[in-house]
Specification:
mainly alpha, two-stranded antiparallel ribbon, 2 strands, globular
């Protein structure tokens, strides 16, 4: 019953930090062999985090100076990921208030840890923030989602106009009561900011074909 898909392509032209920010994770938790002292040196699992624990730990590792790693890609998969379709699966319960609190906590945490002077890192982090605002709007609190997006884009150093336009785009695009003219109008935002578009995300996670050779 194994799928023909694999977790992701291990190698890419993009660096692994960028891929984790895209949520295009090249490996999963049990796909990694650690020297036993490394997780301890990283502080172990963050106990404030109720989900995204592997994302958090791997990001901490990738940001750790002097830590090196080797990616070994063989012909045969050496670890498997079982998809649990039950009601208790993390993927099913990902839109709870606790899950969103964790995501907002992690955004704040990595705001102070990422090398945001790099334009590519800053843009991918902004896209991550936009995706979380989108899910906040759809599944939790619309007003919080818009405030969260606008505030964090400005904290990243983007202009007030940029932050306001993307916040308006989010609100109008997802609002069922917004008229077609309004939706058409805000549709120009990604076009105008085509080089800094927040609603585009490049990923092959969970769609990579086994034996694809990438």
């Amino acid at each position: 019953g194994d799928t023909h898909l694999q977790w992701n392509y291990l190698h890419s032209e993009d660096d692994d930090l960028i891929r984790f920010l895209r949520q295009d994770m090249p490996w999963h938790t049990s796909g990694v062999l650690w020297k036993k002292e490394v997780p301890a040196a990283l502080g172990g699992w963050d106990e404030k985090v109720s989900s995204w624990q592997d994302w958090d730990l791997h990001l901490m590792a990738l940001l750790s100076p002097g830590l090196t790693y080797f990616k070994a890609e063989g012909e045969v998969a050496d670890s498997y990921y079982r998809v649990d379709g039950s009601a208790n699966a993390i993927s099913i319960t990902g839109y709870t208030s606790r899950s969103f609190e964790t995501r907002l906590y992690l955004i704040d945490k990595f705001s102070g840890l990422l090398p945001l002077e790099r334009a590519d890192i800053r843009l991918e982090f902004a896209k991550l923030i936009y995706r979380q605002a989108d899910q906040l709007f759809r599944h939790y609190d619309t007003n919080l989602a818009v405030r969260f997006l606008q505030d964090h884009l400005q904290k990243l150093g983007y202009s007030k106009v940029f932050a306001q336009l993307w916040s308006a785009y989010l609100r109008i695009k997802l609002s069922p009561s917004a008229g077609s003219y309004l939706k058409k109008g805000v549709g120009l935002v990604p076009v105008f900011y085509r080089n800094h578009s927040l609603n585009l995300n490049k990923r092959t996670h969970l769609t990579a074909v086994a034996g694809g050779g990438k």
